[in-house]
Amino acid sequence: MKLATLPNGTPDGQLYVVSRDHTRCARANDADTMQLLMEAWDELAPRVDRQYQALNAGGGVPFDPAQCLAPLPRAWQWLDGSAYESHGKLMDKVFGISAGGDKTRPLMYQGLSDRFLPPHADVPLPSEEDGIDFEGEFGIVCDAVPMGTDAQAASRHIRLLVQVNDWSLRKIAPIEMKTGFGWVQAKPACSMAPVAVTPDELGAAWRDHRVDLPLHVTWNGKPFGAAGGYDMGFGFHELVAHAARTRDLVAGTIIGSGTVSNENYREVGSSCIAERRGIEMLDDGEPRTGFMAFGDNVRMQCALPDGTPIFGAIDQKVIKA
Amino acid sequence: MKLATLPNGTPDGQLYVVSRDHTRCARANDADTMQLLMEAWDELAPRVDRQYQALNAGGGVPFDPAQCLAPLPRAWQWLDGSAYESHGKLMDKVFGISAGGDKTRPLMYQGLSDRFLPPHADVPLPSEEDGIDFEGEFGIVCDAVPMGTDAQAASRHIRLLVQVNDWSLRKIAPIEMKTGFGWVQAKPACSMAPVAVTPDELGAAWRDHRVDLPLHVTWNGKPFGAAGGYDMGFGFHELVAHAARTRDLVAGTIIGSGTVSNENYREVGSSCIAERRGIEMLDDGEPRTGFMAFGDNVRMQCALPDGTPIFGAIDQKVIKA
């Protein structure tokens, strides 16, 4: 099942089903918003899925991802992991902040969730001096998860997969990180690709609770990275269980993978500028690549090996707020 | 103006105005929920205030704080500061994590906001082994704040004051803090006292954007602390401006002060067990006070010098989840 949210003048927008090939869509008959669907998944999802199957056979209206809001335009909770060890190790080495010392516990912070920016919207940020960076990630959306749910049981609560750009301000990040309190100023609102999908849409590429597909990132039209999503040190089911250790997770909680990264980042590239700068610091003694300038574009997308689109593209420009 | 939320079967409950002496209340005619009031404060608050003034003259129904939900039963954003330097310095010294090094920047993290527990509800937590602790705090609720708002302008967005118990799991806190990512497992849902008030209800005790009143904390009926709220290193207007540096703040954002604490904590006591344990470590070389056990009660309240109640009491028991 593939879902998107189109604007209707309300903060939560209108839920649509989207055809597998992303060419057509239809207003969801059985759930007005993604949040309502997440709150009553067992009851509503089978009905929405029937509409999705019918849409794949024909009908609907043309789907325009440029009109979409984020699939969940706002969420009660966004917990972002940092599950790619190659990224964590490099950041630790370069910035001297050892976040990744304990391999028995996933890294995770709670971030801004009152809005997720539309996939094609301009992104207003206050200053280029803050070190504007993108972070290409995958994420999951779960229904309500009771406190204490273990990883195996948590896997059944992973209802949808999403693709996220976790905008980051790199000059502020280490200052906030050193306090131990996590990020507030360094993590403004994230963006989300237009289409959320059930895990079965990935077929064999949904493997061990990970997205086993490359995330293609371009910066101002130039290829920047195509790291594969599989190399997470913890699967999404383990991230859900970690989050639910001392709290009930509200329906519609979104959990992120952290910047997609592979050990061979010199070959496949990176999903954020900070990682490329880290490689340059290792190889050349100093970073050569600057951060984003106002007017810069970033595009992120992911497809099945046969070319079938999955989440659609994040394709946006940073502008002065 | 004084406001509370009573249950009506929906997650956001029904907004009520509460008489100044907390004896009577009336269903708010002009805003069904606190969230709606925060989203249209300029339009709705004058009307709700007229109803509040009329209620003070008479009428309404008996007010029972034990029936209340949190004034905002859920919020899109909860940003908790740690603005009391005496607390920060002690924690730094005892636990060796130097969060408070930079006095030019407030400390702040983003926490769980999809639910705030009712003031008299039992608090289900998974294990006594996690080091269950309370944290008595003051907080503010703001309407929408544009990105880049400075402290002076931010003061006009402080619409309501609240009193919060920021439940904390102390065995997990330093583990998460050392990662730099802030707290997820160590910070389960907070509780909120039943009544939210406009700053004018404090009279002269709303001073320099701080609550200049003692927060009385008892643990199992025994006095534990009565620290005054004034000693914040940053006022709430500065906390709002800090939060809004790189993001628009959504209406209904709640910002906390951090554990209320004074330099003379040996005389006035503390608002959390961790601080008392820190004092014991300094004075006696080891902590003597344990954390909370299931069945333990904590009560927190604050009144004007003439005895007028402000927020009502948080009065609750921790239980096994």
TrEMBL record, chains A, B:
Record domain Fumarylacetoacetase-like C-terminal: where: 79-306
UniProt-recorded Gene Ontology molecular function terms: catalytic activity
Boundaries of every Fumarylacetoacetase N-terminal domain copy: 1-74
Stretch forming the signal peptide: none
InterPro entries attached to this UniProt entry: FAA_hydro_N, Fumarylacetoacetase-like_C, Fumarylacetoacetase_C_sf
The protein's name: 2-keto-4-pentenoate hydratase/2-oxohepta-3-ene-1,7-dioic acid hydratase (Catechol pathway)
Organism ancestry: Bacteria, Pseudomonadati, Pseudomonadota, Alphaproteobacteria, Hyphomicrobiales
